[in-house]
Amino acid sequence: MSDAGRSSDDQRDLELIARWKGGDERAATDLVQRHASALARFAVSAGERNEVDELVQDTFVRAFNSLDGFRGESSFRTWLFTIERRLMLDRRRAEKRRKDRDEIREDDATTEYDALDSVVADEMQKRLQQAVGRLSPTQREVFSLRVSEGLSYKEIAEAVGTTEGAARVHYHNAMRAVKEFLDE
Amino acid sequence: MNDCANAGVRDQLPELLHDRLDAQTRAAILAHVNGCVDCRAELELLRDVRGMLAVQAPRVDVNWVAAALPKPPRQRAAQSGTTSLGAARRHRVWSDWRVAAAVTLLIAGGSSVALLDHGRGIDRLPDDTVQLPPVTPPAGSSALPSASASSVPSSLAAAPVARASTGVPSSQLASADDPSDPNDLTDPSLGASGRLENLNAAQLKKLLGAIDQIEATPITEPEPVSLRLDNRASTQRDEP
Fold it and tell me: Does residue A76 fall inside a structural domain?
C-alpha cells in the first residue's frame, strides 16, 4: 500500500507502531483502544460467544509479539483481523477435538450463531440476527467485515484468506440471503 | 426488498456508510441514493446490521488487554543491556577478588621462600668458600640429584628451583626422594640430625665409602662447584 493510498487511520496506526517500537508503551494502549471493539465485533459476528475479551487480548499479544513481521502492506486493522481469525479457527479446532461444540462446516448455516442468547432490543434486530446467523461462516465473515467494519474487498480477501473477487461474490450472496430472509 | 440495477453504486454503499469515500464520489453516490428507493432501503439495512453487530459485541477492557502486551523492543533491549552490565559488573568484582587473592598468595609464598632461602644461605657464597672438584653421578643412576648432592648434599634436591635446573624428569626426582634409596646420604643410620659435626667416625667412614662408590663418568664437562663446608652441613640439617 502506497503512502498516498493510505487512509489517515492507517497512517495513525503506523505512527503509533513506530512510537511503540521506540519505547512508548502508551502507544500500544492507543492501538488497543482503536481496534479492540472492531475485533470484538468481528469475533461475535463470526460466532464466538465465549471469552471474546480473551480472544481480543490474545490477538493483540500475538500481533505485538510479531510486529516486526508487519510490513504495512495491509492496514494494521486488517492484519489484526487475520490474526484473530486464525485464533478463532484454532479455538474451534480445539473445541471440536474436545467435542464441546458441533462440527464447523462451510455448509452449516446455523453454526453457533443462532445460539447467541443476547437480548435483542426489538423484533427487527432479532430478525436481522437470525438472517445473519443463517449465512455460511465465510459469508458471515465477509458480510461482517464489509458492513460492520467497512473493509474493502481487497482487505477482506487478505483477512479471510481469499481473493478479492471471491470476497465480492460472498458479500453479494450474503446480502441477497439476508434480504430474502427478511422478506419472508 | 429489491436490488438496484446500478451494481456500482450498491457496491459502494458500505463505503458510504463508513464515510470512506472521497468527496466527489460521495456526492455522486448520495445523489443516486436520494433518488433510488432500493438503494435507500439497502443503506438502511446496512445501518441496522451494523448496529445489531455492535450491540452484540461485548465491551473490552482496554487497560486489561494492554497490560498483557509485551514490552516495546527498545525497553527490552535496555533491560537486557542492564542485565548484561550487571553480569559484567559481578564478573569484574569476582575477577578483582581473584586478583587480590593471587597477590596475597604471591606475597605470602614469596616471603616464606625468601625466609627459607635466607635460613639455608644457599644463594650466598662468602669469601671463605672452598672449591671442590666436580662430582658427577653415575651414569643411568636414578639417584642423580642425590648424587649431585655429594657436592651440595640434598638441599638442592629438596629445592624445586634446583630440580628444574637439572633438567631431570620429575618422576626421577620423585624417586630421588625415596628414603629407601641406597645412595641416599641422608640415611638415618648416619645420624638423627644429619649434621656432619654430629656424625661419629663410623658414620663418616660410611659416608665416604658411599661417595667413593659413585662412578665419576660425566656426560658433559661439569662446571666446578663451589661449596662452603659449613653451609653444606647446615643444608644437610634441613633434610627431613
Answer: yes
Residue B49 near residue B41, CB atoms below 8 Å: no
The maximal CA–CA distance of chain B, rounded, in angstroms, is 145
Task: Tell me the C-alpha to C-alpha distance, in Å, between residue A28 and each of A34, A53, A64, B67, B71.
Answer: 10, 17, 9, 10, 9
DSSP B179: T
Q: Could you tell me which chain A residue has the CA closest to the CA of B22? A: A7
> Would you give the distance in Å from CA B133 to the centre of its chain?
50
Q: What percent of chain B has pLDDT over 90?
A: 24
The shortest C-alpha distance from B91 to chain A (Å) reads 29
Nearest residue of B to residue A31 by CA position? B66
pLDDT score of B95: 53
Portion of chain A with pLDDT greater than 90, in percent: 61
Inside any domain, residue A39: yes
Q: CB-CB: which of B62, B64, B74 is closest to A21?
A: B74
Nearest-CA distance from A93 to chain B in Å? 22
ipTM of the complex: 0.81
Using a CB-CB cut-off of 8 Å, the residues of chain B touching A33 are 62
Report which of B3, B94, B174, B61 is spatially closest to residue A172, judged by C-alpha positions: B3
CATH number at residue A164: 1.20.140.160
| Mean pLDDT comparison of A114-128, B21-35, B83-97, B111-125, highest-scoring range | B21-35
Q: How many domains does chain A have?
A: 1
Q: How many Cβ pairs within 8 Å bridge chains A and B?
A: 127
**Which residues form the domain of A167?**
8-183
pLDDT at residue B65, rounded to an integer: 94
B176-226 per-position pLDDT tens digit: 344 444 444 455 555 455 566 777 888 888 888 887 777 665 555 556 666
- Interfacial A residues in 160-179 facing B (CB < 8 Å): 168, 175-176, 178-179
What pLDDT is recorded for position A99?
64
